[in-house]
Amino acid sequence: MSVLVNKDSKIIVQGFTGTEGTFHAEQMIEYGTQVVGGVTPGKGGQTHLNRPVFNTVKDAVEQVGADTTIIFVPPAFAADAIMEAADAGIKVIITITEGIPVADMVKVQAYIDERDCTLVGPNCPGVITPEEAKVGIMPGFVFKKGNVGIVSKSGTLTYEAADQVVRQGLGITTAIGIGGDPIIGTTTKEAVQMLVEDPETECVVMIGEIGGQLEADAAKWYQESGSTKPIVGFIAGETAPAGRTMGHAGAIVGGSDDTAQAKKRIMGECGIHVVDSPAEIGVKVKEVLG
């Protein structure tokens, strides 16, 4: 089993005919992902990459049964694209777009909360279930099928963790890049919970960073859940100075619990196997899986 996406997911690309949408849709199709079409307003009825183009998400849902979307729409229009997808009945909305205004995401979050769908991102690398579906911008060749789930705020560290795991002779069930913006659809806790509850995932890698409460919330949920499924955790940004945004808009240390040291302490107290360097992730995963 996988979470969020698999070989049966029917995926559309919003912003399909743009440069980014075209490039990554080609990569996804080449990987074997079931891309059933795309949406570019005003270009409905055309064909692109041998797939149909629709004017609206609703048309794509009605005509090709789309249930998952990946969004490559410019920041000014991305919030509307997310809400359009939710309104049309899309179940999984993966938003790659970086730089969506926080005020727009506040509205999006309220809108999504009232609907039966899952938003991943924005400003994320996407979701991959190896050998089934790559709905994102990650390098597919790094990921091999296996029994380790990955949750990460960082795109590059998602790939690094996968590579580390694969080098140990293991593989990945699903890797979820949740994004590093201040307001994101799927939190660390929610992504960790999906993987902990997935019967095929035997270990979870959780990669966080300084700023915010997401990792602490996930750690506390894990402790309260009573799960014995091991989690290996890493926090990026240990050397970042307080008060400075590092890389991601959400990666800023505000209070004493936002620091890497505090997060690592909380995670350790909640039973998570914390590593000090991304280079230790694979070895630690192999160790806890015995």
Automatic annotation (TrEMBL):
One biological process GO term for this chain? tricarboxylic acid cycle
UniProt name for this protein? Succinate--CoA ligase [ADP-forming] subunit alpha
Could you tell me what reaction this enzyme catalyses? GTP + succinate + CoA = succinyl-CoA + GDP + phosphate; succinate + ATP + CoA = succinyl-CoA + ADP + phosphate
HAMAP family from the UniProt entry? Succ_CoA_alpha
Record-annotated residues binding CoA? Answer: 17-20, 43, 96-98
Start and end of every CoA-binding domain? 4-100
What this chain does, per the entry, is described as: Succinyl-CoA synthetase functions in the citric acid cycle (TCA), coupling the hydrolysis of succinyl-CoA to the synthesis of either ATP or GTP and thus represents the only step of substrate-level phosphorylation in the TCA. The alpha subunit of the enzyme binds the substrates coenzyme A and phosphate, while succinate binding and nucleotide specificity is provided by the beta subunit.
Q: Which gene encodes it?
A: sucD
Could you tell me which species this protein originates from? Aureicoccus marinus
One MF term in the entry's GO annotations: succinate-CoA ligase (GDP-forming) activity
Residues involved in substrate binding: 159
Is Acyltransferase among the key words of this record? no
Q: Which residues form a coiled coil?
A: none
Q: Which residues form the active site?
A: 248
Q: Hey, which pathway is this one from?
A: Carbohydrate metabolism; tricarboxylic acid cycle; succinate from succinyl-CoA (ligase route): step 1/1
**Cross-referenced Pfam families, in alphabetical order?**
CoA_binding, Ligase_CoA
* GO CC, one annotated term: succinate-CoA ligase complex (ADP-forming)
Q: How does it assemble?
A: Heterotetramer of two alpha and two beta subunits.
Gene3D superfamilies assigned? NAD(P)-binding Rossmann-like Domain, Succinyl-CoA synthetase domains
Say which family it is in: Belongs to the succinate/malate CoA ligase alpha subunit family.
The record's EC number reads: 6.2.1.5
